[in-house]
């Protein structure tokens, strides 16, 4: 496993920008040459022992990250945790897993079949969380998963990698309000996720979030290539708690809508 948090995130970023070509353009648009601070990344998986949330989490807890919160998404049949590093300038990590047993026998069998193809040794390798797909997948299987769970189809097609990075609006030199960030993105031609409104959350819940809709990339299936939604970019503005420190958690109702950034179309 990685020993250095900066190296790990640099590798995650390199993989992410391959899947999310718009990210580099958004950096230029919002950063005006200044460094963009990453608020958090998100990872997706299945609750199957070989690849479950805790397997992914070890890649972060081994370099000092600690578990800081639990979340449940009833409708999407997901649970999640978020992790923070003792150094508050390091990105937070949000890891979710699909509750496979809550789906149809067909979906369960499909997912079990995919995970059986994963070499258990690969899951502890340095690069596992940005290693992509470890199994064969055809278009029909992808479509059948998509009919039941967009999340399941996404993980099946794209495997292990950051589902999104997040611009910390609090650290942007030229922008203070999330509304202004959203407007700049729209003016530049980016499509925002409007599920539950362009802005998820409020100052009252101490977190406002928005996101682009996922880029489309060509993915190799066993029976040919197809263009599907890949990864997206999120934008987060955090507000101070009563003790004056910025809120570092997540809001389940908002995250629920952010997940929909990888839907094929709103």
Rg over C-alpha atoms, rounded to the nearest angstrom: 18 Å
SSE arrangement, N to C: HHEHEEEHHHEHEEEEH
Low-pLDDT ranges = none
Could you give the count of β-strands?
9
At a glance:
The protein has 266 residues and is of the alpha+beta class.
Overview of this structure, please?
The chain has 266 residues and is α+β, with helices and mostly antiparallel strands. Helices cover 31% and strands 23% of the residues. It has eight helices and nine strands. The strands form two sheets. A seven-stranded mixed sheet has the order 2-3-4-1-5-9-6, with helices on both faces. A hairpin with a 2-residue loop joins strand 7 and strand 8 (224-229). Helix 5 runs antiparallel to helix 6 (150-158).
């Amino acid at each position: 496993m990685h020993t250095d948090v900066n190296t790990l995130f640099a590798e995650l970023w390199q993989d992410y920008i391959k899947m999310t070509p718009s990210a580099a353009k958004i950096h230029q648009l919002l950063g005006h040459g200044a460094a963009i601070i990453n608020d958090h990344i998100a990872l997706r998986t299945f609750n199957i022992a070989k690849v479950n949330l805790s397997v992914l989490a070890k890649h972060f807890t081994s370099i000092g990250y600690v578990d800081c919160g639990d979340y449940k998404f009833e409708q999407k049949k997901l649970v999640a945790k978020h992790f923070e590093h003792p150094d508050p300038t390091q990105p937070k990590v949000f890891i979710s897993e699909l509750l496979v047993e809550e789906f149809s026998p067909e979906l369960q069998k499909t997912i079990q079949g995919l995970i059986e193809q994963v070499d258990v040794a690969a899951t502890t390798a340095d690069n596992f969380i940005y290693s992509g797909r470890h199994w064969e997948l055809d278009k029909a299987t992808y479509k059948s998963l998509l009919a039941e769970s967009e999340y399941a189809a996404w993980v099946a097609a794209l495997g292990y990698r950051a589902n999104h990075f997040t611009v910390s609006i609090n650290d942007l030199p030229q922008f203070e309000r999330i509304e202004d960030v959203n407007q700049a993105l729209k003016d530049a031609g980016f499509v925002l996720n409007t599920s539950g409104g362009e802005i998820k959350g409020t100052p009252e819940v101490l977190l406002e979030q928005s996101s682009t809709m996922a880029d489309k990339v060509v993915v190799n299936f066993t029976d040919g290539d197809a263009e599907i939604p890949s990864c997206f970019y999120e934008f987060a503005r955090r507000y101070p708690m009563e003790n004056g420190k910025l809120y570092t958690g997540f809001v389940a109702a908002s995250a629920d809508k952010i997940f929909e950034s990888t839907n094929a179309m709103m």
